[in-house]
């Protein structure tokens, strides 16, 4: 089983719990249904469930399927935190990638952003502050608009082609009230730097924003 398959299973179970589809102590749906829903093979699913069982998150009972343990929420939080702190994890790699790329984008955006684009960013931040729209959508639009503001066609094309990958870090699995507040504060700092046309400040604000998001996710264990 690859690390990514394990992460997918863990994240989807977390999402099911967050949505109230399954609770501590309850039985998980049949393996065939889970494999199809999670986008992994049944073999990978079984291996992932075995690993989760070894960690105390689930228990597999002969004749009655796989059940979440009564104290699974705390164990799940620790496992989710490990996805962020593990050097080989997909989420850790994704956050590192964003740290490599997006501070530079913010710096170029500060140099080239138009008044109309600044206005659009202000509207997005205002909508985020007042809870108008989903977190993931508003966050993606904010960062996407920054890529457009660089005026570099390659940057725009690369960011557009990576949209699905980058959206993994905005999945509902990682949502948490503290992350929303942290994201809003970061976006405001970036916007202030852009208004001042301060490339260095914009780069630093983006760096601080992404690092604080990562810290928030790790501290909450869920995002």
TrEMBL record:
One of its GO terms (molecular function) is DNA-binding transcription factor activity. It comes from the Bacteria. InterPro entries: GntR_C, TF_FadR/GntR_C, Tscrpt_reg_HTH_GntR, WH-like_DNA-bd_sf, WH_DNA-bd_sf. This is GntR family transcriptional regulator. The keyword Cell inner membrane does not apply. Residues 3-71 form the HTH gntR-type domain. Gene3D superfamilies: GntR ligand-binding domain-like (1.20.120.530), Winged helix-like DNA-binding domain superfamily/Winged helix DNA-binding domain (1.10.10.10). Keywords: DNA-binding, Transcription, Transcription regulation.
């Amino acid at each position: 089983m690859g690390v990514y398959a394990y992460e997918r299973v863990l994240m989807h179970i977390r999402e099911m719990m967050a949505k109230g589809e399954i609770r501590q102590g309850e039985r998980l749906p049949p393996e065939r249904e889970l494999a199809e829903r999670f986008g992994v093979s049944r073999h990978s699913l079984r291996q992932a469930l075995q690993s989760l069982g070894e960690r105390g998150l689930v228990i597999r009972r002969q004749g009655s399927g796989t059940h979440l343990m009564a104290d699974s929420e705390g164990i799940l939080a620790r496992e989710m935190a490990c996805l962020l702190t593990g050097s080989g994890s997909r989420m850790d790699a994704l956050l590192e990638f964003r740290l490599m790329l997006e501070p530079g984008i913010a710096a170029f955006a500060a140099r080239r952003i138009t008044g109309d684009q600044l206005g659009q960013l202000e509207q997005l931040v205002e909508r985020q502050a007042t809870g108008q729209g989903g977190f993931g959508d508003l966050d993606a639009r904010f960062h996407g608009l920054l890529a457009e503001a660089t005026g570099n066609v390659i940057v725009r094309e690369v960011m557009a082609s990576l949209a699905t990958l980058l959206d993994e870090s905005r999945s509902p699995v990682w949502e948490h009230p503290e992350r929303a507040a942290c994201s809003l504060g970061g976006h405001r700092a970036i916007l202030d730097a852009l208004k001042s046309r301060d490339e260095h400040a914009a780069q630093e604000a983006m760096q601080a924003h992404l690092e604080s998001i990562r810290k928030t996710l790790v501290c909450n264990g869920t995002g």
